[in-house]
Design goal:
homodimer; Rossmann fold; 3 domains; six-stranded parallel beta sheet; five-stranded parallel beta sheet; thiamine pyrophosphate (chains A, B)
Chain lengths: 792, 792
């Protein structure tokens, strides 16, 4: 090895590179140990079958490459005192991160029973991928992790999320070449068009061309060097290649490349600090190294190193197969653990000295346990943004439009702290959060024209037409201790169903780890919802995200359906203050009737569910009928139906129940927000018919209420997958949730009404025909539908 | 305009280009007409307010560019007699496709009431984006469409799916620059590494750099020309740029480019026919043209053409605002409809002559109504692949492994017809469909090494680590009249939740259009399911896809949970023969107990649900307890629980019910497979306790059965979001669905057992502790759990 001149003028000596190689060997040895050994962790005795785990689980293939990267990152962190975190795209390579955080000491600080000696090593090896132990991924249990990588595709989006508003942070993001084939990752390279070089941090992608997936080569490993280079130039990066398999040469190349890359990063940051806001071409590294590097070359005649056979556990049966046993023993010994660990079993001091110290260690960097850094938002008083109602049913300007003024001031109040961002797939205006653009812009580093609106080099809103990116960026932002809001069309939030799953799982597990601090909630505002996609039609209609959400742990998920602007304000305030939840808010954006004054809205949202006395006429008695609703459009149709019933059947006692917090419907034993049976019965009675107009698929209400006494009397209307381009009201008719169908449903369950019912039923049917004819002729709703006012 | 020499030596004259411009004007005129007019469609009278629609909906911005492309494609189709179809990525531009298919005559053939005259034009304009009319997208109602584009991101994947095994087909795929920001589209460019130049067709991507999304510029429009070029070179394409806004010049450029591109395509196809199988670098076109091209330049002082303001309806209020009225009138007149349509209102004959004829018209190409081309698969007799059981509970080799032999022969039998493919995200081996590789390979056009396995230039399996791609390719393949199977890990099928939504919606709507022929079903095999992700841990555990599926129309969705290999064979056979459904099959891949002989399995799967007499002891009487199960692991645990109960409580009458076809549980009024109440009650009784072990989230069973008489006695166990790296059995314990918990659940509901129950409960609790201790110590399950055999 040669001495390398670094950009600060100092040297990287051959001796240092040799030490780094030894450190790498230690990490690789630890990976094999984690996968195979339950005892004799340093081979102080001859390997015996009893030392080997009965079941061997873990992913070897990606691990040595990640260990290689980690040791080279350690060098530059230490040398330049960098604030750096590590994201492992191929998170299956848990042994790499577990091993490295152990070697640098953070693992033992987090889990004191895992001591820095032979006994600690033994415990660590055994607990890896073992029941009651730790997962084999870079899971929440692993210090330094804020990205598990169990599901592939989101490492780069998370990394950019972490970098936003952390100007001094470098996020080293290892992208696996398998992961690189996923859609979300393929578009995430474009995140560099949204990163401000002055105010945001740095993402240093390290594309690991490891060559193989589970059983196939990877696409990027099997195209020409020129194509790979063009691809990343096209994505707006400057790729540096480190390619080979000879460790000595590779250490040299990697160290040199790190120096070049860091010098470029420094120059870009300096230029930005000097006021040049041109979009920089950030450097990245392409590391082409063999899968299962340094592992066995052949097992049972099959090539292992540099082949997909190295993906998981390369030597299958070291207990039962004597050849395998010898292969394993030789493999372990090839790292010469006796040269790496001292008598106690602690990493040699000269190797320990290679790692950074304190919170510069990537396993201890506080950004990776974001709750440590989380500061509450300054919250303006949401009540001041409320609508003053002159009467019930007064038309508001659009619920999200009103809330936009509140969110605008959340943006404003926290502008200096730089810890709140809004993400959306080109829909922040469409979702009517227009007011935020009074105080901020969309952050955009691409070229601009003077006809553009609300685009600037920096801004609190980031928009890209990729729900994956919006979700991934926001998750990365939250995971590193900040706050945010994702606004999205309701139907297309399903695009991130699987990302939501993973984030909910992360929250569930971190909730159970005392050393993990709580994060700000993931807040999702679904405007442009199913009932008002009348102009976009059937493809834009799907309210099923909340079905998906409620499958996750009750301790994590919250769903809100505010019926009007004041309620949405109250809910938004609550969600932005909350911690460690996923909050889903569904709200309308169009001018629509308003029901509650601010004080009433606060009371109603605090309870989450309640009787609307002013709409009911069962005061002080038992109702004949409960009309329940959840969601803005269902509330409107329910109140219209109630007014028809009350006018036509004045003796009928009707109770109106509105649900804001959907989880109230579940039993209190199932969800912390759930009502007790007594409270539920007090609202819904034990035996009266309940007509429930629901925002989403009707079955969800049944699913949540099936244990309740009165469940058999629940009749739920909701979206049942009928829709096209039509009018707003016709959408409710197609799905039989309109006022006339609701009245018909009620009448069917009120035998005591006799002739009144027959007359009214005919009237409702006539109305439906009248409405249909008018729409067919005019393409719009009848004025008395469109401008209907509550006047009971 | 100059005369252009074409690659076949003929000329494109200035006269031809002028005519093409006139045709383009006609299409643009029709687009404005569709958005605005309900009468006076050819402005034969002065425009009046009464001619204008009350509500104006539609997307103008993308439309003129798509019209431009369509007219140029028409020219080359006609000239070279091409078999070409058109995929509209920005499918919101419905006016383009509706207009063009009308101009070429296919629209009137599909909808005879829409005649080729003024009256037909009037009807067409009025029905566009009008209640009871047609959607504003390239929806199923539009002839020539097999990709609606309502949700963005899948145009290119669908196009490649269409091209597979259609060697003479060219799929012209317009990719919007908004859509191009999505993850799925960003990775879909790599599809060229999977397209065989000899046996498959051609995809000609036309990236439309239209510049803007709803309210933002697009990323690809705001990076340098060099970056765009590098990006597509890196993706392995040869990009040709057509850039500008002056129509005369643009026609010339586009025609020239089409000639170059088609010559290259021809050369590639010829080379492949001659045996050169090197991966070709296919040409593509980048069309940079102004959004809202030829539309109004300014409205209310805001720029419209070449700005995001052109996205939808550029002139907002032509009825109420006199200036807007004049702008609209001038805009319409700018196309000179009087020069384009004859007295009757029919497109001038010389323009009509520009379009191809018959099924060469892109609106009439049979590939776009795939059912027209669909041929049934040759199906081997699945019974011949069944396992012969020597006893109940015999360990099989893995249910998907067995089915793999059947699928292998489906592949083999249909090899020559080239109409069956298997798609998977690098998991076909992991999901144990190994046998298929005895007869075919993975199709892979990237570089290969001699250590690779089952990779070849052609093969019936296609694998890329992108669930989006697998799903999109398969959808495209099915939509153009072929058959296929998608195999996937259960947890990660959520990645395509939203794609499933769109396909289910497509199937629902086409079901209702008599001229649309039925397609082969979308078959999804979910192996590597929640209960056997014990080695990958929590991130890999989510059985909620079926919750998502059952929200869609009952006429479309089917869910199967075969308990063993013979049942899976029967289900697979049924699914592969079926039409126009989405079939979800959930099955295990690990060696596991087998329950039914082939004949029994066929009978059981044909009924879809049934009593297992051999496991029950209530023959001829009423049971005290029903033990129900759905899914392989729940069936095992249920039978183990039943055997414990029968041994310890011999007088207890137990009925075992197994569910294969989940939809049987729904009321027959809700789903065509649903049982009548009488049949349901005959299985589950009206009043006996039912302990139901379910594969997925338990609430789904409640949702499906809440209307049944005995519902209140249903106690359902399933996955409740508890998991980590552990053993297979411990996964069931963590979720309280193991045999011991099931016995405890039963005993809680059997008060008549008295002391027997108390004794047995203690025994079950002891067993749970024993099991836990053993696992904690050994990391594997106790032998009597692992090797448990049915022996009642």
């Amino acid at each position: 090895m040669d001495t390398i001149k670094t950009w600060d003028g100092s040297d990287i000596t051959p001796e240092l590179l040799q030490k780094m190689d030894a450190y790498w060997r230690a990490a690789n040895y630890m990976a094999v140990g984690q996968i195979y050994l339950k005892d004799n962790p340093l081979l102080r005795k001859p390997l015996s079958k009893d030392d080997i785990k009965s079941l061997r689980l873990g992913h070897w293939g990606t691990t040595p490459g990640q260990n290689f990267i980690y040791v080279h990152l350690n060098r530059v962190i230490k040398k330049y005192d960098l604030d750096m975190v590590y994201v492992s795209g191929p998170g299956h390579g848990g042994p790499a991160l577990v091993g490295n955080t152990y070697l640098e000491g953070t693992y033992s600080e987090t889990y004191p029973e895992i001591t820095q000696d032979e006994s600690g090593l033994k415990k660590l090896f055994k607990r890896f991928s073992f029941p009651g132990g730790i997962p084999s991924h870079v899971s929440p249990e692993c210090p330094g992790s804020f990205h598990e990588g169990g599901e592939l595709g989101y490492s780069l989006s998370h990394s950019f999320g972490a970098a936003f508003d952390n100007p001094d942070l470098i996020v080293a993001c290892v992208v696996g070449d398998g992961e690189a084939e996923t859609g979300p990752l393929a578009t995430a390279w474009h995140s560099n068009k949204f990163l401000n070089p002055k105010n945001d941090g740095v993402v240093l992608p390290i594309l690991h061309l490891n060559g193989y997936k589970i059983a196939n080569p990877t696409v990027l490993a099997r195209i020409s060097h020129e194509e790979v280079e063009n691809l990343f130039l096209g994505y707006g990066w400057k790729p540096y290649f480190v390619e080979g398999n000879e460790p000595t040469i590779m250490h040299q190349k990697m160290a040199e490349t790190m120096e070049i890359v860091l010098a470029e990063i420094k120059a870009i940051k300096q230029k930005a600090a000097d006021g040049d806001t041109t979009r920089p071409i950030w450097p990245m590294i392409v590391l082409r190294s063999p899968k299962g590097w340094t592992g066995p070359k052949f097992v049972d005649g099959l090539p292992i190193e540099n082949s997909f056979h190295a993906h998981q556990v390369p030597i299958a049966d070291p207990i039962g197969n004597p050849e395998h046993f010898v292969l394993l023993e030789n493999w372990l010994k090839s790292y010469h653990p006796e040269e790496l660990f001292d008598e106690k079993g602690t990493l040699n001091q000269d190797l320990q000295d290679l790692a950074p110290t304190g919170t510069r260690r990537m396993g201890s960097n506080p950004h990776t346990n974001g709750g440590l850094l989380l500061k509450d938002l300054f919250m303006p008083d949401f009540k001041e943004y409320g609508l003053q109602l002159s009467h019930r049913g007064q038309t508001g300007p659009g619920d999200t439009l009103v809330t936009g003024t509140f969110v605008r001031d959340v943006v404003k109040e926290n502008m200096e702290k730089r810890n709140f961002r809004i993400f959306g797939p080109d829909e922040t205006l469409s979702n009517k959060l227009n007011a935020v653009f009074e105080v901020t812009n969309r952050q955009w580093e691409g070229d601009t024209l003077n006809t553009d609106e609300f685009l600037a080099k920096e801004g609190r809103v980031i928009e890209m037409l990729s729900e994956h990116q919006c979700e991934g960026w926001l998750e990365g932002y939250l995971l590193t201790g900040r706050h945010g809001l994702f606004n999205c069309y309701e139907a297309f939030i399903h695009i991130i169903d699987s990302m939501f799953n993973q984030h909910a799982k992360w929250l569930k597990v971190t909730n159970e780890l005392p050393w993990r601090r709580k994060l700000a909630s993931l807040n999702i505002l679904l405007a442009s919802h199913v009932w008002r996609q009348d102009h976009n039609g059937f493809t834009h209609q799907d309210p099923g995200f909340i079905d998906h959400v409620v499958n996750k742990k009750a301790s994590i998920v919250r769903v809100y359906l505010p019926p009007d602007a004041n309620c949405l304000l109250s809910v938004m305030d609550h969600c932005l203050r909350s911690k460690h939840y996923v909050n889903v808010m569904v709200a309308g954006k169009h001018p629509s009737p308003q029901w509650l004054n601010m004080d009433e809205a606060i009371l109603h949202c605090t309870k989450g569910i309640g009787i609307w006395d002013w709409a009911s006429n069962d005061q002080g008695g038992t109702p004949d009928l409960v009309m329940a609703c959840a969601g803005d459009v269902p509330t409107l149709e329910t109140l219209a139906a109630v007014s028809i019933l009350r006018k036509n059947c004045p003796d009928l006692k009707i109770r109106v129940v509105n649900v804001v917090d959907l989880m109230k419907l579940q039993p209190h034993t199932e969800h912390p927000h759930g009502l007790t049976d007594a409270d539920f019965d007090a609202l819904f009675t034990k035996d009266k018919p309940v007509i429930f107009a629901f925002h989403a698929y009707p079955w969800l209400i049944h699913r949540m209420t099936y244990k309740r006494a009165n469940h058999n009397n629940f009749h739920v209307r909701g979206y049942k997958e009928e829709g096209t381009i039509t009018t707003a009201f016709d959408m409710t008719v197609l799905n039989e949730m309109d006022r006339f169908h609701l009245v018909l449903d009620a009448l069917d369950r009120l035998p005591m009404l006799e002739q009144t019912a027959d007359y009214l039923k005919q009237e409702m049917k006539d109305q439906l025909i009248l409405h249909k004819n008018y729409i067919d002729e005019n393409g719009i709703d009848m004025p008395d539908i469109k401008d209907w006012k509550w006047d009971v």
